[in-house]
Amino acid sequence: MLPNPPTKYGVALFSGFQALDVFGPLDALNILSASTPLNLSILSTTLSPVSTIPIKDPVPGFIGQRIVPTHTYQDAPKDIEVLLVPGGEGTRDAELTQPVWVRHARWVHDGNIWTSSGVSAGIDMIYAFIADQYGQEVAESVATTSEYSRNPDSMNDPFSGLA
């Protein structure tokens, strides 16, 4: 556990974000915040609700969720310590993470940058992050509370070979 683990989180949203990329890690942080007070800022270009439904070529009947941002990028708090950037349609994940992306890794930790390989991998990554920042016991407690079976091996990604 770090002497001063982060307490100020932000999530960068865009139209067509992958719901599990946001809600999975946020649920772990929700549970963590019951014992460790945290601040969360939801960021986007405007304060209008941001949908998981992509603006470009939406499929008729496609359901989605919307999140109302708390801040725009222009008025975001200056003291955010951890920024979560979900994947989904419209992201440039590969461009953003190219320096630390490893094809067969579930997640990669390189200095102060953590990247995950896919949708549910972000959940395993947030638990690894919590273990790194707050301690293994805290990560296990949060996982148990959420009834989540963690994959603690970053190089064990059973989905990496799928197209």
From TrEMBL:
SUPFAM superfamilies for the chain: Class I glutamine amidotransferase-like (SSF52317)
Entry-linked PANTHER family:
ARAC-FAMILY TRANSCRIPTIONAL REGULATOR (PTHR43130), THIJ_PFPI FAMILY PROTEIN (AFU_ORTHOLOGUE AFUA_5G14240) (PTHR43130:SF15)
Name the chain's protein: DJ-1/PfpI domain-containing protein
Q: Which organism is it from?
A: Trichoderma ghanense
Q: What is the lineage of its organism?
A: Eukaryota, Fungi, Dikarya, Ascomycota, Pezizomycotina
